[in-house]
Write a structure and sequence with these properties.
Blueprint: E1 10-15, H1 26-34, E2 37-40, E3 56-59, H2 71-83, E4 87-92, H3 102-111, E5 116-119, H4 124-131, E6 145-149, H5 162-166, E7 171-175, H6 181-190, E8 198-203, E9 211-216, H7 220-223, E10 231-235, H8 242-245, E11 260-263, H9 270-279, E12 283-286, E13 290-294, H10 299-309, E14 320-323, H11 326-338, E15 350-353, H12 356-363, H13 377-385, E16 391-397, H14 403-410, E17 414-425, H15 430-437, E18 443-446, H16 449-458, H17 464-468, E19 472-475, H18 478-486, E20 493-494, H19 500-512, H20 522-527
Parallel strand pairs: 1-4, 1-5, 2-3, 2-4, 6-7, 11-12, 11-18, 14-15, 14-16, 16-17, 18-19, 19-20
Antiparallel strand pairs: 7-10, 8-9, 8-10, 13-17
Helix pairs in contact: 2-3, 11-12, 13-14
Bound molecules: S-adenosyl-L-homocysteine.
Length: 528
């Protein structure tokens, strides 16, 4: 179809929130999911782009002192993409209409006769102070708040007494003001604010990298040396409340504050680790290296399950089902239940589970393994093959050949490994990969050997060992760690308990110990 005959598209001017990716609205996420094109800049948390799975991504980022994409050109991109029939999201930091030029872009669209919608966002003017423990209004302390651009100080525009008109408010919040701080302070004192007026600067508000300094009009300029944009300036009595209300940037509450952690879990499972890390103050860089999918051909699995069901006393049948991963459990039972069976059919068959997360997965189906944790492959093999003539069904992936299969066969046990789920290589996320290669990550975490292999295959001209050398490398257990070492990677941390909780515990212990000397958990030494 010729473009000109297509219906014009639609532009959503979406507020991305101030930085923490959870501070976007539900509607904002919905728009990103539907988008054909996303036009974004640096203030929006770029991890939000993961919601826009099928969109063309256009970076119009404006970095201080770098060449910005001119506003007229941004307007032109929006008009052109919408005229071509696309659903366009213009993703903006904070709220699109608070010094976000959302109004200008909307006008350009209105003039072009194109439909648009505005999806408000949480502005940094309110959120950054809130995350620093500073409410912008407070009864008996501040009845009014003004949000002011700090940029116009150099304009000398006599028509716009920009500070004077706002100076009547109790609380002043300046955006884009860090570069003009000395001038702003001078103006405020000249206009009658006491030099003792409390002032706070909040950089990177609501991100795990948030930084705050507080002082007064008299001393804030000298205290501001380490503060860089983006930052807000808060002036007024409410700043004093931070002393009692500081909640976010506290190491006692968020012991991993500011730590950047590479999360290589599969796409479908990355979120859980990221959320747990975020609660501790760490920022996840999600770079899924694999995808976990159902098998293309479930025939062999169906046959195996049918054989299992027939096993109650009769051949062909199994004495054991051994699960070596939580994925094996969940994909096995999805298939099992989809075929119309229920778990009572398994009465009489013994269940084995390797690793705590596998045991947890089994227990979520109301099933306890027939032996107590912790399981390792040799222990598992020893236990099963000690009973003569055992027949074992072993659900596994297309990629991993669990070492327990060989161990069991060596001991004369009959094992049928059946492919239950597929591990596929994931397309590398360019933003997360760039963050890793540019050294914007402190710790790399690995949950499986396939995670390591997947990441290695994403690198073009450097080895994984080279890329990981400056980082701390943390593995969930000895098998993953051994794979890493075989690739020439120095492993700094091995979780004592081979679960996400265990991995996080290892990170916490290492971080508490000063984050500098590589720490190997005691059990890892014992297991090698
Ligand atoms: N529309 C945005 C503001 C854009 S103007 C909003 O509503 O938040 C850019 C300015 O916003 C920056 O110079 C800085 O003053 C402020 N800003 C944006 N994100 C910030 C953050 N995470 N922490 C502190 N200030 C921020």
């Amino acid at each position: 179809m010729a473009l000109s005959s297509r219906k014009p598209g639609l532009v959503y001017l979406v507020g991305a929130g101030p930085g923490d990716p959870d501070l976007i609205t539900l509607r904002g996420i919905e728009c990103l999911k539907q988008a054909d094109v996303v036009v974004y800049d640096r203030l929006a948390n770029l991890s939000l782009l993961a919601h826009a799975k099928r969109a063309e991504l256009i970076d119009v980022g404006k970095q201080p002192n770098r060449h910005p994409v001119p506003q007229t050109q941004i307007n032109a991109i929006l008009v052109e993409k919408a005229q071509a029939g696309n659903i366009v999201v213009r993703l903006k930091g904070g709220d699109p209409c608070v010094f976000g030029r959302g109004g200008e872009e909307a006008l350009a669209l209105a003039e072009a006769g194109l439909p648009f919608e505005i999806v408000p966002g949480i502005t940094s003017a309110i959120a950054a102070p809130a995350y620093a423990g500073i409410p912008v209004t407070q009864r008996n302390m501040s009845c009014s708040v003004a949000i002011i651009t700090g940029h116009r100080a150099v304009d000398n525009n006599p028509q716009c007494d920009w500070i004077g008109s706002a100076a009547g408010a109790d609380t002043l919040v300046f955006l884009m003001g860090i570069g003009n701080l000395p001038h702003l302070v001078e103006q405020l004192i000249r206009q009658g604010r006491s030099p003792d007026t409390p002032v706070a600067l909040v950089e990177q508000g609501t991100r795990t990298t948030q930084k705050t300094v507080a002082g007064t009009l008299a001393n804030i300029v000298e205290r501001s040396v380490n503060i860089r944009p983006p930052a807000v300036i808060i002036v007024g009595e409410v700043v004093r409340l931070r002393e009692s209300l500081r909640w976010f940037d506290r190491v006692d509450r968020r012991p991993l504050l500011g730590l950047r952690v590479l999360n290589t879990r599969p796409l479908e499972q990355a979120g859980e680790l990221s959320r747990r890390l975020a609660l501790l103050g760490a920022e996840s860089v999600e770079l899924p290296t694999t995808r976990i999918m159902p098998v293309d051909n479930p025939g062999p699995l169906n046959t195996a399950i049918a054989g299992l069901v027939a096993s109650n006393g009769r051949s062909p049948g199994y004495d054991w089902i051994i699960f070596t991963s939580a994925n094996a459990v969940s994909f096995f039972f999805k298939r099992f239940l989809a075929l119309g069976y229920d778990v009572r059919t398994l009465a009489g068959i013994k269940l084995g589970a390797a690793g705590q997360s596998t045991i947890d997965a089994l227990q979520s189906y109301g099933l306890n393994p027939d032996s107590s944790p912790p399981y390792t492959s040799p222990a598992l093999a020893a236990q099963i093959s000690s009973q003569a003539g055992q027949r074992v069904l072993l659900p596994c992936s297309n990629a991993d050949w669990p070492d327990v299969v060989d161990l069991l066969r060596q001991k004369g046990t009959t094992v049928n490994p059946v492919v239950t789920y597929a591990i596929q290589a994931a397309e590398p996320d360019p933003i997360a990969l760039a963050a890793l290669l540019k050294g914007q990550v402190d710790v790399a975490t690995f949950i499986s050997a396939s995670g390591l292999n997947g990441l290695a295959s994403m690198l073009k001209d450097r080895t994984l060992a080279e890329v990981l050398a400056p980082l701390t490398v943390a593995c969930i257990g000895p098998t993953t760690a051994d794979t890493a070492r075989a690739m020439g990677i120095r492993v700094d941390l091995v979780a004592q308990k081979h679960t996400l909780d265990g991995l996080i515990d290892a990170l916490l212990t290492w971080h508490r110990a000063g984050s500098e000397s590589p720490a190997v958990m005691p059990e890892a030494i014992a297991l090698r």
